[in-house]
Design goal:
By secondary structure, this protein is an alpha/beta fold. Helix content is about 35%, strand content about 15%. The chain is built from 23 helices and 20 strands.
Length: about 600
């Protein structure tokens, strides 16, 4: 006789069958039937977060750090809508995630019942696919499909909304032996003719650049990328989402391109005659004014998502396929070209690039008032914690400094909210990363603005023994917005002073207490709280934080309020207008 179970029990068994070991969530009325059998699961660890947004970002952090699908859960109505931001974030950054939400009973759907929201309709533009399940018999199939969709092709979030009566009703459990979705056939293998054409263009070009995006990390193609780079001798740039895909220390690496990229990376793209784009999407933060981006370059564009090919920049050689497969085939095609005696000459190109790298290295000035340079803090953090640590950034100036001044040597060591730019990402994402990789040292690098959006998840970390470390780059302001107000709004600082730094004008002192006091706040959450205000104390403070591994650590680095992120390409302008300091003309005009 077939065993009769509830839909909720079937859902728990389905998650177990999908290989889930960790779920981040908060119970509520509509999803409460699921939480009862969850107590009986020996495989699944449920981490009770303090806000559903924290659950979603934690699932993202878990997924990005481990390569597995992250899972979050919430109840109907406000519980589900609080997941919208992390779902949108995961969609923009191609993070594999399954969000499970409870829904009001099926008979009440559409009646504006208590805590009802059409979460399926709300999230339709920001999910790869989503489901409303009202029949308990469909639960195993839907869950299997959700995990398959989330993790294949271009990864992304999938929502499974289950009505309360479906969770309570009787059913049987049968996990599908395979998943076969009509119309969903992601192409992994590239077309051989296109790959050969790409190889031909590479050997015929004189100023090529490997433009590497996050798709290389998603496809776990970092070993193939290094082989390709060293085989060809081409310069490599890694976007914000691709940091760690190619070692920063490698002599062929030019750094990060884009609005706050290195001069050499931005200029190489701009001056190139061939862009080999691997898993990148020609984002506006990389291209600047699109019509002026790399005007003399042909484009080879490889991406697993055919919708990205020629979306922003027309590809001369479009290649649809998984980056790992594309790069492996491209290596073979190029070896064939080399065996036939056809090889590009890039000596003059490298001479130009080396000159740019020597002339315009990354750097920063020490504050003249004796306050602490935020770049120095992050630079020392990267050097002391080392390349094996995992660094998770919020959004803003500290994010850019973390991308610039930490050396990323390994994949999976840099997590951030790139496409959506979500403040509040760092702490819960670091929590998720640490839950997925408990043996790794995980540092959240956050601004004082970002930190105040989701710091309640420190309570979750303390209670669940998830000892992350948090470096707050505390300048008392919404730093990136203040930078724009400095540069483009005549220093009219409208509503960017968070009132937490105790500083007025540069160099001025104040007796105003910090609001909040981050050290006291950390201690209230059961963490160790530290403060550092002087450059000579930075190393000792970081080393002390590194020694504490039995609970979360929060370090309040009180830094100079007017430090700016350089280089910078003003939004909407050409990359030709890149500047390396305020009040300085562009370092090159595009005509040299």
């Amino acid at each position: 006789m077939t065993e009769q179970i509830t839909g909720a029990q079937s859902l728990v068994r389905s998650l177990e069958a999908a290989g889930v070991d960790t779920v981040f969530g908060i119970p509520g009325g509509a999803i409460l039937p699921l939480y009862d059998p969850l107590m009986d699961s020996s495989r699944i660890r449920h981490i009770l977060v303090r806000h559903e947004q924290g659950a979603g970002h934690a699932a993202e952090g878990y997924a990005t750090a481990t390569g597995r699908v992250g899972v979050c859960m919430a109840t109907s109505g406000p519980g589900a809508t609080n997941l919208v931001t992390p779902i949108a974030d995961a969609y923009m950054d191609s993070v594999p995630m399954v969000a499970i939400t409870g829904q009001v009973p099926s008979a009440s759907i559409g009646t504006d019942a208590f805590q009802e929201a059409d979460i399926r309709g709300i999230t339709m533009p920001i999910t790869k696919h989503n489901y409303l399940v009202t029949d308990p018999n469909e639960i195993p199939r839907v869950v299997a499909e959700a995990f398959h969709i989330a993790s294949t092709g271009r990864p992304g979030p999938v929502l499974v909304d289950v009505s309360k009566d479906a969770l309570q009703a009787a059913t049987t459990f049968a996990w599908p032996a395979s998943v076969d979705l009509r119309g969903y056939r992601p192409v992994a293998r590239p077309h051989a003719k296109q790959v050969r054409e790409a190889a031909r263009l590479i050997v015929e070009s004189s100023r090529p650049v490997l433009y590497v995006g996050g798709g290389v990390l998603k496809s776990r193609a970092w070993a193939e990328l290094r082989t390709l780079a060293e085989l060809t001798g081409l310069p490599v740039v890694t976007t914000l989402m691709a940091r760690g895909a190619f070692p920063d220390s490698h002599p062929q690496h030019l750094g990060m391109p884009g609005m706050h990229g290195t001069v050499s990376a931005v200029t190489a793209l701009q001056k190139s005659d061939l862009l080999i784009s691997l898993g990148a999407r020609f984002d506006d933060r990389v291209t600047g004014q699109l019509s002026t981006f790399a005007p003399g370059a042909k484009v080879v564009h490889a991406d697993i998502d055919p919708a990205e090919i020629s979306k922003n920049r027309t590809a001369d050689v479009p290649i649809v396929g998984d980056c790992r497969e594309v790069i492996a085939d491209l290596i073979l095609a190029l070896q064939g070209e080399y065996d036939a005696g056809r090889r590009g000459d890039y000596e003059g190109w490298w001479a130009q690039i080396n000159n740019w790298m020597a002339t315009y290295p990354l750097g920063y000035d020490k504050p003249t008032d004796g306050s602490l340079a935020p770049q120095y803090v992050i630079e020392r953090l990267g050097q002391i914690a080392g390349p094996e640590a995992v660094y998770v950034a919020g959004v803003g100036q500290h994010q850019m400094w973390a991308a610039q001044y930490i050396s990323y040597e390994n994949p999976g060591t840099w997590l951030n909210s790139g496409g959506l730019g979500t403040m509040g990402y760092a702490v819960p994402a670091a929590m998720g990363a640490k839950a997925g990789r408990p043996d790794a040292t995980v540092w959240a690098i956050d601004g004082d603005g970002c930190f105040q959006m989701t710091n309640q998840e420190l309570a979750t970390c303390t209670i669940n023994n998830i000892p992350i470390k948090v470096a707050i780059i505390n300048n008392g302001h919404l730093g990136m917005v203040r930078q724009w107000q400095s540069l483009f709004y005549n220093e009219r600082y409208s509503n960017t002073d968070l009132g937490g730094s105790g500083r007025g004008a540069v160099g001025a002192t104040s007796v105003v207490e910090r609001v909040p006091d981050f050290v006291k706040l950390a201690e209230a959450y059961g963490c160790i709280g530290l403060r550092c205000e002087k450059a000579e104390d930075v190393d000792a403070t970081i080393e002390k934080a590194m020694e504490i591994n039995d609970r979360p650590v929060v370090v309040d680095f009180t830094v100079h309020q007017d430090a700016m992120v350089w280089p910078m390409v003003p939004a909407g302008t050409s990359n030709d207008k890149i500047q390396v300091a305020r009040d300085m003309a562009p370092r090159w005009d595009g005509d040299e």
